[in-house]
């Protein structure tokens, strides 16, 4: 007898009943005399995209770096119920946090395939997830990564992280400096990735946030000043101006 698709098993928890994949509690970062994060606390839900927003220089990148141990910090960081704040960065990454930094950090002298084989020596561009999400990279497997466009390098950086099994992805301004068409492509990939892996996304492009983010966390003056739904925030021009100093940007995603 073939199994019919059924409604959700009533014994299994709904997404809203599942705890957060990541909890940041009372996070402080000091650079010399500058107290950049002053007790930042928020949860990243186990599904979808959480956008981390705030004005320039408010500490968004620092928050991501602090989570993976690349900024000097105190506070509690809990990944799937396990405290990780005392672990060194390689262990935090092995524990399941993927990090895509703002500057992409591809190896320009290596081919696309070689960049991916640094993580998956057996498959590189032949890995199924690369074929599914990044068909253009498969076609460009032999091209040196340094000759790719910014958007294509972003794809290499994302693909490299996705070759590892991750519980949550931290992605820092993936569309910065990209042409609108490439912004749309990167947004499509992130939306697809978020179907299976929760993402904490630093992003300044509000149309993109509205399109792919479910929840938002807004930083100001070293603290979280707003948490809520992404659509609600972006729809509220007064609130976005008050919190971010801007309302909806012109350069958008289709
Ligand atoms: N390594 C460092 N040493 C000293 N100060 C730093 C260092 N890294 C960041 N800062 C400072 O910490 C503050 C927060 O920087 P951060 O890059 O986290 O902000 P951001 O919100 O990501 O900014 P943007 O939106 O402009 O990218 C800034 O004032 C920055 O100058």
Please give a structural write-up.
The chain is an alpha/beta fold. It has a domain at 20-101 and 166-244: P-loop containing nucleotide triphosphate hydrolases (Rossmann fold). The protein has ten helices and ten strands. The chain has helices spanning 60-67, 89-94, 112-117, 128-133, 135-139, 150-162, 180-193, 206-212, 230-235, 237-244; strands at 22-31, 34-44, 49-54, 73-79, 82-83, 97-100, 168-172, 199-202, 215-220, 223-229. The strands form two sheets. Strands 6-7-8-3-9-10 form a six-stranded mixed β-sheet, sandwiched between helices. The chain has a four-stranded antiparallel β-sheet with strand order 2-1-4-5. A hairpin with a 2-residue loop joins β1 (22-31) and β2 (34-44). α6 runs parallel beside α7. It is globular. The structure holds adenosine-5'-triphosphate. Adenosine-5'-triphosphate (ATP) binds at residues 31, 34, 36, 54, 56-62.
């Amino acid at each position: 007898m073939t199994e019919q698709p059924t409604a959700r098993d009533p014994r299994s928890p709904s997404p809203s009943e599942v705890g957060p994949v990541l909890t940041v509690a009372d996070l402080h970062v000091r650079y010399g005399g500058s107290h950049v994060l002053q007790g930042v606390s928020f949860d990243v839900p186990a599904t979808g995209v959480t956008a981390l927003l705030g004005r320039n220089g408010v500490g968004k990148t620092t928050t991501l770096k602090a989570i993976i141990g690349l900024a000097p910090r105190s506070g509690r960081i809990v990944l799937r119920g396990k405290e990780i704040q005392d672990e060194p960065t390689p262990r935090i990454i092995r524990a399941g946090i993927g990090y895509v930094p703002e500057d992409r950090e591809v190896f320009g002298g290596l081919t696309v395939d070689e960049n991916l084989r640094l993580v998956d020596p057996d498959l590189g561009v032949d890995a199924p997830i690369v074929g599914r999400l990044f068909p253009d990279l498969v076609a460009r497997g032999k091209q040196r990564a340094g000759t790719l466009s910014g958007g294509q390098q972003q794809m290499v950086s994302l693909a490299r992280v996705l070759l590892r099994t991750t519980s949550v992805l931290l992605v820092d301004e993936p569309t910065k400096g990209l042409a609108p068409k490439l912004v749309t492509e990167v947004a499509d990939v992130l939306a697809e990735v978020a179907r299976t892996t929760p993402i904490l996304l630093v992003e300044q492009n509000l149309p993109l946030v509205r399109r792919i983010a479910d929840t938002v966390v807004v930083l100001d003056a070293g603290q979280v000043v707003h948490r809520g739904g992404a659509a609600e925030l972006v729809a509220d021009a007064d609130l976005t101006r008050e919190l971010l100093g801007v309302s909806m940007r012109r350069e958008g995603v289709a």
